[in-house]
Specification:
The structure holds two protein chains of two kinds. Chain A contains five helices and five strands. By secondary structure, chain A is α+β, with helices and mostly antiparallel strands. Chain A has two domains: about 80 residues, Ubiquitin-like (UB roll); about 70 residues, [2Fe-2S]-binding domain (DNA polymerase, domain 1). Chain A has a five-stranded mixed beta sheet with strand order 2-1-5-3-4, sandwiched between helices. In chain A, a hairpin with a 2-residue loop joins β1 and β2. In chain A, α2 packs antiparallel against α5. The N and C termini of chain A lie far apart (about 50 Å). By secondary structure, chain B is of the alpha+beta class. In chain B, α14 packs across α15 and α16 packs across α17. The longest helix of chain B is centred in the last third of the chain and has 28 residues. The chains are: A alpha+beta, B alpha+beta. At the A-B interface, α2, α3, α4 and α5 of A face α1 and α16 of B.
Chain lengths: ~160, ~750
């Protein structure tokens, strides 16, 4: 059960061949074996949401999954958001509206918002607040995060 | 355009947005090992033996260290030393006695964190249980013959006894603020790296006070100060708890030195909730004397602060600030505060954002509400007649806080109160709530006034360097915990020199870049580091002007520097050069555009505010929802309004946590009951209302060259007070709320009683 296994993870469109114990979490594997440290660990028990990433398009807690469960799935982390130095509208809006202070929870909120808006581009108001209450932030009081996501959503709508 | 006063977007954001920031857990070094701390499972006991034999043999284990291997002095006080506390300092590893669940008894060093955690399970600490002391009103023995009632902090003025005897009315009340704390989203972490070639240690993951901690670690390890360097990386929130010197910081350094390999320790959330400083946890017994108009003649407060198992780096800070700041914006002709610091077998406690003020403001503002209710007066008018009038300011409180005399430097408290009332449409809002209550809703309004403090000295030093390209580096011993230090310091520097803000970088928290520094605490950075920056930048500007005058063959008095372009006044068509060209010329001629400045002060500066909360109570569940919140805050001068607002709103959210949700409880054996985010509830976006903020600049500080006061703690200060008042108003009983947090259970009990 504990013998390491060779697996291939598809992260941000790139294949990573890694050798991990079955007990190693997806979050730890992404951070240590794939070298993508933008995904942060705030509680490791699925409450804070700092480690939120997209797996097959859906926001998930990467601390609650094992890497060996995720072979063949499409994994997307915060490092994927900007392309060629151009920030994603969510990143731009967080910057513009001061949606971050220490920035530790930010990657989780960005990925949560991206996943939620892809599922429902019209998400706004109290429904958006409810979705964003899946993750914890200790600095901002959430107000600017909500404003930023609303602003980005408006920009992203076709 | 000047930068100061503008909502400039932050220089620090791009790496945080793109996942390229480097928090301590994101760093790794070749051959790095992981450290896991074995913690006491018992609240109070004699530590007979720590058996490491099994762990030593476990896979991947390099070393297991206990107190018998590691002989280091205990962790000393950074602040507010009062006599007689030395015996209560925490050892880095328990020796002979454990005093709280979570106390480090051993560390396991292994090839990776999973293996270190496996092996830690195999360390067996043999502990003879002792009865835990959990009630600060009944102190026990800290050690054989050494009481756990460790200090009494007294402050006051005027004749309290006579005052009470002469008062027309006297009221007595017992008030409590629960045990809760900062809980930043990033847990603590530290990496020790031994540099064998230079016999030096580097610690990464420093925060808040890197220079102080450098000296402390050097002393503990018996090294010269220049052999210890601390490096601050990105830090995921501080709030008072992060960055103080803890056992783990010293242990990674010691282990790295012994083993010659980098050692990384990353705290997990359970550890954080039982090992990182707790805070608050005070019981107050107050007597108040007042007259028929509601004017308060006397406050006589005695309080007990449950500071947990050891006196950590903050010494007596929280009790000191509680006593010093409790009278707040009111005259209070006679005042006495007696604060007992008592140790118990719980996690040690230190400061958390607005230490002593969150508690003291709750107590004081409850008193004001009780006085108003007793006399049937309007709570806001009762506050008004007690406020210190503007012609009495500067106002000397006649005692000290953190070793500095408490003198409110500038302010017009009544003016701010009036502005807040106008913004609220106070009369209209009260009438509206009255009507809703008459309709069966349980809604209420609470208003609280407070004085904050900021800009603690004694000094801050800043060096400004310009390279031959004209890039400006501000180097400071201040620290960044997410507040936006880099941006606000760059704004001040850019204005003073006359360059573009993008030309500026701010280096902080690196002990190898500047010899001295005070760090970031007590809402000090914008005031202290900002002032020193403005002074150093002015000197750089003067030097640049001299060189430019020479190059442009003009009178220095006619040189203008704006957004990096240098021109001669009155000849817009004449020659102009860039700041970079002047810097290059200065360096070429053997000079340099560099200046170091130090800003000193013996006094803090005192911002002030008024907060108002509207709450709605669900009578079925007892749940309390904050529907509206307003912060009025006078900051003297605002460097970056967007960041100021961010600080205030964020503070309110944390304050709501302490008022309604967050509490560390213990069972009768001293086992902590809140050890995960399932049982320690932080406010989410659903519990946090949109907060209205009104920042005023009526009363600039006369104590610093830029007139600023701090914003860091003004948001959280009065939240417990305002919400308690609003709940009282909603329930129609102002004496009902005597304790924070106000849980649904509390509210149900009040409703059933009525």
């Amino acid at each position: 059960m504990t013998a390491p296994r060779n697996i291939t993870l598809l992260v941000n469109g790139r294949e990573y061949s890694v050798r991990v114990e079955p007990r190693k979490t997806l979050a730890d594997t992404i951070r240590e074996d794939c070298g993508l440290t933008g995904t942060h660990l705030g509680c490791e028990h699925g409450v804070c949401g700092a480690c939120t990433i997209l797996v097959d398009g859906a926001p998930v807690r990467s601390c609650l999954l094992f890497a060996v469960q995720c072979e063949g799935m499409e994994i997307e982390t915060v490092e994927r958001l900007a392309s060629d130095g151009v920030l994603h509208p969510l990143q731009e809006a967080f910057w513009e509206h001061h949606g971050l202070q220490c920035g530790f929870c930010t990657p989780g909120f960005l990925m949560l918002a991206k996943g939620a808006l892809e599922e429902d581009p019209a998400l706004t108001g109290e429904k958006l607040r409810e979705v964003l209450s899946s993750n914890l932030c200790r600095c901002t009081g959430y107000q600017n995060i909500l404003t930023a996501v609303e602003a980005a959503a408006a920009r992203m709508r076709p | 355009m000047k930068y100061v006063g503008q909502s400039v977007r932050r220089l620090e954001d791009p790496p945080l947005l793109t996942g390229t920031a480097q928090f301590v857990a994101d760093l790794s070094f070749p051959n790095m090992l992981a450290m896991r701390v074995v913690r006491s499972p018992v609240a109070n006991g004699r530590l007979i033996e720590v058996d490491t034999a099994e762990a030593d043999k476990a896979a991947g284990v390099i070393a297991v260290l206990t107190a018998s291997d590691v002989d280091l002095p205990p962790i000393d006080f950074r602040m507010t030393k009062v006599g007689g506390l030395d015996a209560y300092r925490q050892p880095v590893l328990a020796k002979g006695r454990v005093r709280y669940v979570g106390e480090p008894v051993a560390v396991v060093i292994a090839e990776d964190p999973y293996l270190a955690e496996d092996a830690a399970e195999l360390v067996w600490a043999e502990i003879e249980d002792l009865v835990p002391h959990l009630d600060p009103l009944n102190p026990g023995d800290f050690d054989d013959g050494l009481t756990s009632a460790v200090a009494l902090i007294e402050k006051g003025y005027g004749d309290v006894e006579d005052g009470l005897a002469a008062s027309r009315h006297v009221l007595e009340v017992e008030l409590r603020v629960g045990r809760h704390t900062g809980v930043p989203m990033e847990t603590r972490g530290a990496i020790g790296v031994w540099d064998a070639a230079n016999d030096a240690i580097h610690m990464y993951g420093a925060a808040k006070v890197p220079h102080y901690n450098r000296s402390a670690i050097a002393t503990m390890l018996g090294l010269d100060q220049d052999k210890v360097q601390l490096h601050e990386n990105h830090v995921g929130g501080g709030f008072g708890v992060r960055g103080e010197l803890y056992p783990e910081d010293v242990l990674v350094c010691e282990a790295a030195r012994r083993l010659g390999r980098p050692i990384r320790w990353i705290e997990d959330r359970r550890e954080h909730l039982i090992a990182t400083n707790h805070s608050r946890d005070q019981l107050h017994r107050v007597k108040v004397g007042f007259d028929d108009t509601g004017f308060i003649d006397v406050i006589d407060d005695e309080f007990w602060q449950d500071q947990g198992a050891y006196v950590r780096t903050h010494g007596a800070t929280v009790a000191d600030l509680t006593g010093a700041m409790l009278p707040g914006p009111y005259l209070v002709p006679a005042y006495r505060s007696r604060g007992h610091i008592v140790l118990t077998n719980k996690t040690p406690a230190g400061t958390y954002r607005a230490p002593g003020r969150y508690e003291g403001t709750f107590v004081r503002e409850r008193i004001l509400d009780l006085v108003a209710a007793e006399l049937g007066l309007d709570p806001v008018e009762t506050r008004r007649i007690n406020l210190i009038p503007p012609d009495r300011i500067p106002f000397d409180r006649q005692f000290s806080a953190l070793g500095t005399g408490v003198t409110y430097d500038s302010g017009d408290y009544e003016r701010l109160l009036d502005r807040v009332l106008e913004r609220l449409d106070y009369a209209g809002l009260r009438a509206d709530l009255e009507a809703r209550r008459a309709n069966g809703e349980k809604v209420g309004l609470g208003v609280a006034c407070f004085v904050e403090k900021s800009g603690l000295g004694p000094f801050d030093e800043v060096r400004v360097e310009v390279d031959s390209e004209g890039s400006v580096e501000v180097i400071t011993g201040a620290a960044s915990l997410g507040q936006g230090v880099e941006t606000s310091i760059a704004q001040i520097c850019a204005d003073e020199i006359g360059v573009d803000i993008d030309a500026i970088t701010v280096t902080h928290g690196q002990t190898d870049r500047i010899d001295r520094g005070m760090g970031a605490f007590a809402t000090r950075v914008t005031v202290m580091t900002g002032s020193a920056t403005s002074m150093a930048a002015a000197e750089v500007r003067e030097k640049a002007v001299e060189h430019a005058a020479r190059l442009l063959e003009a009178n220095p008095a006619d040189i203008r520097i704006e957004r990096g372009r240098i021109e001669v006044e009155g000849s817009p068509e004449g020659p102009s050069i860039t700041f970079g060209e002047v810097a290059a010329a200065a360096i070429e001629s053997g000079g340099e555009l560099t200046a170091t400045a130090e800003f000193n002060t013996n006094h803090m500066t005192y911002p002030y505010g008024v907060q108002a909360a509207v709450v709605e109570i669900d009578p079925d569940t007892g749940a309390c929802r904050v529907t509206d919140y307003l912060v009025g805050y006078d900051i003297g001068r605002s460097v970056n309004p967007m960041l100021v607002k961010g600080q205030l709103v964020g503070g309110v959210a944390q304050g709501i946590g302490g008022a309604l949700l967050e509490v560390f409880r213990y069972d009768e054996s001293g086992q902590p009951l809140a050890t995960s985010f399932m049982d320690y509830s932080l406010p989410t976006a659903s519990e946090t209302p949109d907060v209205a903020v009104m920042v005023t600049e009526d009363s600039p500080s006369p104590l610093n060259p830029i007139g600023v006061k701090g914003a860091g703690e003004g948001g959280i200060n009065a939240v417990g007070a305002a919400i308690a008042a609003a709940v009282g108003d909603a329930l129609g009983d102002h004496s009902a709320v005597t304790e924070l947090p106000i849980t649904p259970g509390t509210i149900q009990a009040i409703l059933h009683r009525a």
